[in-house]
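One such shown below:
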Amino acid sequence: MSKRTYRVNELIKEEVSQILLKELGSDFGFITVLAVDTRRDLRHATVWVSIIGEKAKAILTQLEDKEKNIQSQLNKRLVLKYVPKLTFELDHSGEYATEIGKTLKKIRNDQK
């Protein structure tokens, strides 16, 4: 990854986080922007989000419904030749880590 791509990723991550937090209100519950992966041409970016709670898929659907609004806000905030088109994806690493923790705890308890 080039320095430029890294900087664009971090900038988009910060701005999308602020948009979700301030401009779209509390509709999204506990949502965290974990990472942004921008393609080499800087025209498309995948925004990886973590959503806490059982309604993660419903919240992701709401997020996708507001994608145009988020994109519009991002276009106004960033001064780039091309502002990447955003795609949102749900990151499951937190759930995976929780399951690993439960499994390890069970193994420890079974060994006693």
About this structure: The chain has one domain: 3-111. The first helix runs from residue 3 to 23. The radius of gyration is 17 Å.
